[in-house]
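Forum > Structural Biology > Help requests

Title: Can anyone predict the 3D structure of AAA family ATPase?

Hi all, first post here. I have the sequence for AAA family ATPase but no way to get a structure on my laptop. I'd be grateful if someone could post the structure tokens.
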Amino acid sequence: MSDTNTAASITSDLNGHDSTPADDDAQLSPAKTGAGTESDETIEAREQSDAQLIPLPPLEGGIDQERAYVAALYRRLDELREENQTQLNRVRSTGAVGTMQNISERDAFASMYEDRLAQLNAVDDRLVFGRLDLENGDARYIGRIGLTSSDRQRLLLDWRAPESGVFYQATAFDRQGVRRRRHLLLKRRAVQGLEDEVLDTSVLEEGTENHGDGALLAALKARRTGQMGDIVATIQAEQDRIIRADRSGILVVQGGPGTGKTAVALHRAAYLLYAHRERLKSAGVLIVGPSSTFLSYIERVLPSLGETGVVMSSLADLYPGIRGMEETDPLAAEIKGRLDWTEIIADAVAHRRRTIPEPREVRVEGVKVTVTPKMVRRGIERAKATGKPYNEARSTFVKVMIKEIAEKLERLLQKRSQGNEADRSYLEEDVRHSRDVRVLLNLCWMPRTPQALLEDLFSKPQYLAEVAPQLSPEERAALQREPGAAFTIADVPLLDEAAELLGDLDEHAERQEARRQAAREKDLENARKAVENASPALEEMGIEGFLDAEAVANLNSETGPRLTAAERAGVDRSWTYGHIVVDEAQELSPMQWHMLMRRCPLKSFTVVGDIAQGSSASAAQSWAQALGPFIDDRLRIEELTVNYRTPRNMVELAERVAEANGLQITSLRTVREGEHEPVIEKHNDAGSLVSAAVTSVGAEQQRLGEGLVAVIAPQKLVEPVREALVAQYGKRVGAGAGSMAQDVVAMTADEAKGLEFDGVVLVEPAALLEEARGRVGSLYVAMTRSTQSLRVLHSRPLPAGFAAEA
Ligand SMILES: Nc1ncnc2c1ncn2[C@@H]1O[C@H](COP(=O)(O)OP(=O)(O)OP(=O)(O)O)[C@@H](O)[C@H]1O
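Reply #1:
Sure, ran it for you. Structure tokens for AAA family ATPase below:
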């Protein structure tokens, strides 16, 4: 073990780069504490320094030595937190005085300290989890962030640093220079155990035991809390390769249930934010999931990895200001998912622009002027030639028309007054204010919002028939609805398409945009100066790279409230992200993909899903089919094949049912055998299933001790089951997006997508299959949600594949 591995005055470096020590570290050196009476502060400082001088435990070191070392890391973490808090207080106390630039600087610093404090707080739980002993005698500790010593030696490696890769990838066959991999099992800050994997057997002779996969198994057996946790300590080699894969292009991660796709996707987002911080911090990362329940299930993973500021959105929420309701008719959902809508909506927009069939008189200040179809056509052509979206081009049309009508009016007046000149600008004003002219212009080119356009399309059969000849009369009928009906999830991409083609409704949009651009330039210039001025101080504190002009400009935007890139992205439909992660991606319709592609023109995507689990009306049959229309050669597909969630006995049953019902699946390896065999209960009376579900929840909770139990039932039984559960369990029954925080939940198979529970009570599989129009994906999803136990209740005959257990 080299001397440089001494934990002397450690400096945190969240970016994983070498950092310059803070001046304060010097005060902690025993050499500087001096003789004489020691104040409390000095004693504390000396204790900290002593702790930091503990050498790295040797290879054969035991748990006590590891504890001492980990304690030293935590003391440093606390110090850094204090330092940041002090700096933050100091910056805040300067108040909003001085020039714009001073205020910019102050705010930029304050926000940087806040970010950093949030990150230091976030990594407190299990800060360090691994140690690698290398063949060359060096040791590396791996943790949630990087920590370096005052002489710039890295003492704790960020798990995302390139050198940490071997922690996840080294095997006995391919040691990659590793002698031993040690897992430090922490509960919050306390080291509770060690798990060693010895890759170099000569070390075994030195008396160390090989504990294999203990850390992984412990993680997998743990009770579910209703919130997904990170897997940073036990990422498996096949997962690690995906997490660290190149950012460019579309990476598809295909994997059966429980193979860690969601976990991998989120860790990949954290990795990309680390490896491409500058670019991704300003452009942002978008994570798209199937529902708000799912998003609240995964929302803690990235913060626990020290990453905040990604935008999470369900497909229902991707159009700002609208929350799409469920699309209850599968036929309507399927039709609205088709790419045909790019054409239909373009035609619908064009259709709102029309000439007049014959000349038409308009009155301007009592004078009649004839407007001809030719004049209107000319106006339309000139406006179209600007290439601007519909609403924005309309202002050109209006300008051209007013000018032409005013010219005609001028000629008329000249004739009447035998040559007397009229002032053209007054005439144009008169034309603009003429009611007849306004009516005519609106008739020819009506300003339109995306919402109004869609509402017209679905409530006026004639309009839809004219612009959507590619749909059959039955298909068009399936789309009919009352004006004012709520928008659905399947409408969201159509609204987005319409918004793109219609553009901004505001006639002054152009001027506003120009003003916004000018203000942005000014903000950027201020920000550049602020960052330049701040650079020496940042360098000294080892936090370069945390701040870039773009980020500061966003914080100091004069044009609106101070929002981070993520916050601004979340409310701006036209925002383009640096990377997009899509979970449960097999369900997306072509129109939903079309909408997402627009949000990342670079096409840098991580797409995770399982074709076999598809259940939506537009679910893809293959990744090539789903993504083919949007890419050239950029599709990379990786496959995950180990189920970490569900024990072997349940996976076998689920796979048998899936295959017996014609679903093509890749058989998965499992990590655990399963302590509880699946139970199948036959009930003679369908009416007794609701009360049987309540009883089963009790039975499962008893069997498991404690934990999260879900009843997954056909749509029409979910509400009765929930009511009966509430009668029995009261507030313990969860509802809505936060439902997973409770310990009893009831939901449909579709709602259960992506989630997991300690125990599952599955009600009437035959009805679940029917509800999904015979597609077995939903049933397969439902049968693979449990980590411990599965109980199936039925009154109707079971679908094929259950038989062996019946
Ligand atoms: N390397 C790992 N270490 C510890 N736990 C893991 C690991 N990989 C996956 N898991 C756990 O396995 C469970 C399933 O993972 P995840 O939900 O990411 O799978 P999935 O492939 O998205 O599943 P599904 O398609 O069924 O929704 C989670 O509890 C996750 O934390």
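The first strand starts at residue 10 and ends at 13. DSSP finds 32 helices and 22 strands in the chain.
Shout if anything looks off.
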